[in-house]
Amino acid sequence: MSVATVVHYLLPDPETVVAPRPPVDHGEMVRDVEKAFFAAGLDRADFAWEALRPPDLDTADIEDGRTSDLVVVDRAVLARARRQRARRLSPAQVALVMEVTSRGNTTVDLPPPATLCSPLTGSCGQARAGIGHYLLVDRDPRVAKVLLYTDPDPEPGTYGTLAGMWDFGRTVELPEPFGLRIPTRLWEPWES
Question: C-alpha angle 34/102/68, rounded to 5°?
């Protein structure tokens, strides 16, 4: 039996991508954001957002081969997709994506000065797909910040606005439509 046959047998869905699992601290940053959205939903009856971990998002329109760490969707949109038994959410249904950088994705995720490609100046799959908010947790020790990009322009694939920037350790205050506070007290850059 060839390797291709074994891989096809184990992963029969052509959309399945195998990538190494991120380290625990990376995953816990994602979980901190997920918990903040969950807690806001419990505290506020009018809170309209759900945070989901992939593979709930169809990344075909993003076209860069990456999967976001977290997606945020309006509860009504999610309920409708569930009733329709949608296989995946489309980028048009997603209000925010979150990515946490790691050493392996720094050339495409990091804003200047640490990279050649910034979502403000370089092509970004999430902006090309029209996703309204891009929350980037930049763990590079030279940056160590949380950045919120908004106002996507799909044609060049860039975001028009850096809507927020927070140092690790500070509370991230996502503006409306989310109106959410995310503690980052335990967040640290990766080791140099």
Answer: 45
Tens of pLDDT, residues 119-170: 776 778 889 889 999 999 999 888 899 999 999 999 998 899 999 999 999 9
Taking a C-beta distance cutoff of 8 angstroms, is the pair 164, 96 a contact? no
SS3 184: coil
The DSSP string of 15-78 is T----PPPPHHHHHHHHHHHHHHHHHHHH-TT--EEEE-TTSB--TTT-SS---SEEEEEHHHH
Separation between Cα atoms, residue 29 and residue 131, nearest integer Å: 21
CA dist 71 to 49, 50, 76, 96, Å?
10, 8, 15, 6
Q: Long-range contact list for 26-32, CB < 8 A, 24+ apart?
A: 26/69, 26/100, 26/102, 26/139, 28/186, 29/100, 29/137, 29/139, 29/184, 29/187, 30/69, 30/70, 30/98, 30/100, 32/182, 32/183, 32/184, 32/186, 32/187
34-43, 57-66, 67-76, 121-130 — which is least confidently predicted? 57-66
Alpha carbon 189 to its chain's center? 17
Q: Which of 105, 106, 77, 75 has the alpha carbon at shortest distance from 91? A: 77
Residues 151, 17: Cα–Cα separation, whole Å? 29
